[in-house]
From TrEMBL:
This is Peroxiredoxin. Coiled coil: none annotated. The keyword Nucleotide-binding does not apply. Keywords: Signal. The keyword Signal applies. Residues 1-23 form the signal peptide. Residues 252-408 form the Thioredoxin domain. GO terms for molecular function: antioxidant activity; oxidoreductase activity. Pfam families: AhpC-TSA (PF00578).
């Protein structure tokens, strides 16, 4: 039986993405430098910027650029004129062709087995570093929207409000959208006249925001996550706006003080908190998925912290809920996560990526509200803290406060006898 990746590559070959396999001279590789790509998302054009370094595929690094954020990816060249750029731990890729005029055309595709989500077509041109419009061509902004914004969300299903942290410098606009599950990562865009646009692409599906500043200085707009997830919002500047306390959203049900589970590791061996390895230790349990950008950001924080502190009487466990309920598939996706972030703690497979399933696997919790969720357990096995979501460095003081509390709380628990 073919693996899911073999099936996917076969499909690409059948679609003609690999180009010619004849013994003709190889075509030139794509140029080093900065590029501007544009996704076609429904009726919208969603720009993204990237940089390519390396004169051939063997040495090439594809770097997505979003404000100050940089995300690097490996480039594979297939045939004379085709590229395959795997989005690191996210089971998706850019599949592209080098055109005769030097442009790149292709699609952003899911690699999840049996997933029938639509692909996002894109084109890219060399030497263009702007995001939405070339410098000097934009209409002067009528408003300054720098600051903290309280965003009221309107969607078919009840959706918690969000917070926007925006920074404006002339026409240039950058920022991040925060929700109870985490943050959007860094967004980059422009404000021209009374309209603004932001986009972000770091490996998962692209994000696009388009809005208008009203005469009363409020905002109206729409936020698009991928192909189908579009939500409308109103915004009001509010320096005092805050999200619900992430330490109080997820908690233990009445009558519970401990967490209990038995799940397989990547080799199929069952692991439980009652195992000797965890007795008398402070244990950190992170509930994640490799498809989830906030989860990989959380892991990029936890893994180096653990590697530095693991000899202090602390252990960690990651429970991954993946996009296919199959241990072999999870071994691949979670194995990539382990390799990229040098994870030296146990990684378990929880099942399909579904909050209801996660709640069933962890019945002591009131509910599984978000991936990631981080649980801290003391040396006696008592759950002492549960944190919903994760906010990264782009959130500024929110991130600094999280790190300060994390270190203070872990130091105190480790010091307990």
């Amino acid at each position: 039986m073919k693996s899911y990746k073999q099936v996917f590559l076969s499909a690409l070959f059948a679609a003609g993405f690999w180009g010619s396999t004849s013994a003709t001279p190889a075509k030139p590789f794509i140029k080093e430098g900065v590029w501007r790509g544009v996704f076609t998302l429904s009726e919208s054009q969603v720009p993204f910027n990237f940089q390519l370094s390396g004169k051939d595929a063997e040495h090439a690094v594809f770097t997505l650029l979003n404000g100050t954020r940089r995300d690097d990816f490996h480039v594979q060249r297939i045939g004379d004129d085709s590229l395959f750029i795997k989005m690191n731990t996210y089971d998706a890729a850019l599949v592209a062709k080098i055109e005769s005029d030097g442009r790149i055309t292709g699609e952003y595709r899911s690699l999840v087995p049996n997933f029938r989500g639509n692909a996002l077509p894109f084109t890219a041109e060399y030497g263009q570093s702007y995001r939405f419009a070339p410098n000097g061509t934009e209409e002067a902004p009528k408003f300054n929207i720098d600051g903290k914004w309280e965003l009221k969300i309107y969607s078919k299903e009840p959706t918690p409000d969000r917070i926007g942290l925006l920074h404006q410098d002339g026409n240039k606009l950058t920022g991040v959208i925060m929700s109870v599950v985490g943050d959007s990562r860094e967004l980059e865009g422009t404000i021209h006249g009374d309209e603004f646009e932001l986009s972000g692409f770091t490996g998962p599906s692209p994000i696009y925001i388009k809005g208008k500043v009203n005469d009363d200085k409020t905002l109206t707009g729409e936020l698009s996550l991928g192909i189908y997830n579009n939500i409308k919002f109103d915004g009001e500047k509010n320096p005092a706006a805050e999200l619900p306390d992430p330490y109080k959203l997820t908690y233990l049900k009445e009558g519970y003080s401990q967490l209990d589970f038995t799940l397989p590791d990547l080799n199929g061996k069952n692991v439980s908190l009652s195992d000797e390895k965890y007795k008398g230790k402070v244990v950190i349990v992170e509930i994640i998925g490799t498809w989830c950008p906030n989860c990989t950001d959380q892991t990029s924080f936890l893994s180096p912290w653990f590697n530095k502190n693991k000899d202090r009487g602390v252990e960690a466990i990651a429970i991954g809920f993946e996009q296919k309920d199959d241990l072999e598939y999870a071994r691949y996706t979670l194995g990539k996560l382990k390799e990229k972030y040098n994870i030296q703690y146990d990684i378990l497979f929880g099942g399909i990526a579904d909050k209801k399933v996660a709640s069933e696997k962890l019945p002591a919790l009131n509910r599984m509200m978000a991936f990631p969720t981080t649980i801290i357990i003391d040396r006696k096995g008592v759950v002492r803290q549960i944190h919903t979501g994760y906010t990264g460095e782009v959130t500024g003081q929110y991130y600094k406060d999280y790190v300060a509390r994390w270190n203070a709380d872990l130091d105190a628990l480790i010091a307990e006898k």
